[in-house]
Write a structure and sequence with these properties.
7-stranded mixed sheet; 11 strands; alpha/beta; globular
């Protein structure tokens, strides 16, 4: 199993070349009975002809993968990894490059840290800021808020079971509520103004609470998933400083906008973050799974996350230059998931990234104009980033569901409905730089 097989290599590489060369179809979700039938008996005591297994993948399984990297995938938050990133991800995988520690992977760790430094500089964080790459925004939020919890308990002399709360809004990503439940921290709900968390609302909530001392942190969002709204980062940062709160910014989707001159000023205040998450597998054109987690003071994360065991003693030294990514999140084993982004940035340069992000922002603005001009459509709010919410006048939830199904069935686009203030509406999420206004016009024309 571990001997080089030239025929197997050529077979898989040819499939890879074909995938890179040819634009993937949107595809369709599979049916369980058909998939079960295709897979029945495949894995057993004896192996199978690799060509037959690859044919099964190509003909039966791959067509059920809805292509999130298609320019016509406009739901949730799409992906658009560069070819440089995808190819280098293949190299990372085939070389079994892990990224646990400096001892075992100093070169990969140094390269990942170069990218983390770039992101920290874009956010205006101090020179000592640092962190690691994790699997996604949910893992980043979990690790950051564990650090916030443990830091607050230590600084305030609290016990491990004393009640603590973290301020959140109803617009925070779903992973925030899940994280708080997992780590035993209660949410301190703060109302939003037009779906935006503000410093004034946070201060008012703290001043009227019966026990504000139990609130240890606040989560702000730099680009909500549904509408791309950026919270009042400057105001929230000021209140966090006033009340001694950990200031966490979830920029999983929207944080990439730091590279776009046209919206850069909207992120004022992000430089005060104690922790920050940005997902390169979203708007920085990296493959899944890749999220950057940054701390203003990484030593606080080390105190919260470093795992102690006799077999790990060799990883932990007094040499501050030996950076172990395993010390900055809830993980231990990890792949060097930041390397594909590092390679692509080194190949293309940051200007190309800025231009690609600006394309999505421009398309969102042009789409808003298109919707405003259509008598049967209503723009719900001006796009702040690259998400556009709108409604078809007279439609109910079932109309949107049927429309979405028709679009996918015809391979026109994947546009899933979403909810907004209790109403089902339509939403475009632009990210792929090859999505054009002509594609949008084609989709909109089906709503007449």
């Amino acid at each position: 199993m571990h001997t080089y097989d030239p025929a197997l290599t050529d077979l898989v590489v040819a499939s890879l070349r074909d995938r890179l060369r040819n634009r993937p179809a949107l595809n369709h979700p599979g049916e369980k009975d058909k998939l079960d039938g295709a897979l029945a008996g495949l894995i057993g005591p004896e192996g199978n002809d690799p060509e037959e297994v690859l044919r099964l993948w190509t003909e039966q399984l791959a067509p059920t993968v809805v292509a999130v990297d298609s320019p016509r995938f406009l739901s949730f938050v799409p992906a658009a990894p560069t070819q440089a990133a995808v190819l280098f991800d293949t190299l990372v995988s085939c070389a079994s490059i892990q990224g646990v520690s400096w001892l075992l992977a100093s070169g990969p760790v140094a390269a990942e840290n170069q990218v983390l430094r770039l992101l920290a500089d874009l956010a205006g964080m101090p020179a000592e800021a640092g962190g690691c790459f994790v699997s996604g925004g949910s893992a980043g939020n979990l690790s950051a808020l564990v650090t916030a919890r443990d830091t607050a308990r230590r600084r305030r002399g609290l016990g491990p079971y004393d009640r603590v709360r973290i301020a959140v809004s109803d617009q925070a990503h779903s992973s925030i509520a899940n994280t708080l439940r997992i780590i035993g921290v209660e949410p301190f709900a703060v109302p939003t103004a037009d779906h935006r968390l503000t410093g004034s609302a946070l201060r008012a909530a703290l001043l009227t609470d019966t026990d504000p001392s139990g609130v240890i942190g606040v989560v702000a969002t730099a680009g909500t998933t549904n509408a791309g709204i950026i919270d009042d980062l400057t105001g929230i940062a000021s209140v966090a400083c006033e009340f001694g709160l950990w200031f966490h910014v979830d920029g999983a989707y929207g944080g990439a906008g730091l590279l776009a001159p046209s919206v850069r000023d909207r992120y004022r205040g992000i430089e005060h973050a104690d922790s920050l998450v940005i997902d390169p597998h979203k708007w920085l054109f990296a493959p899944f799974d890749c999220a950057a987690l940054l701390y203003r003071d990484p030593s606080l994360a080390r105190a919260a996350h470093t795992q102690d065991a006799s077999y790990l003693d060799a990883l932990h030294t007094d040499d501050d230059t030996q950076w172990n990514p395993s010390d900055y999140a809830h993980h231990l084993s990890r792949r060097a998931r930041g390397l594909p982004l590092w390679f692509s940035l080194a190949v293309h340069g940051t200007r190309a990234y800025s231009e690609a992000i600006e394309k999505a922002l421009t398309l969102a603005r042009d789409t808003a104009t298109l919707i405003r001009k259509a008598p049967h459509l209503e723009l719900i709010r001006e796009p702040e980033l690259s998400a556009v919410l709108f409604r078809r006048v007279g439609w109910e939830a079932q109309d949107y569901a049927e429309w979405s199904a028709r679009l996918l069935a015809g391979q026109t686009a994947f546009v899933a409905p979403t909810g907004w203030e209790g109403e089902t509406v339509a939403r475009f999420a632009f990210l792929h730089p090859e999505t054009t206004l002509e594609v949008v016009e084609e989709i909109v024309s089906t709503m007449t």
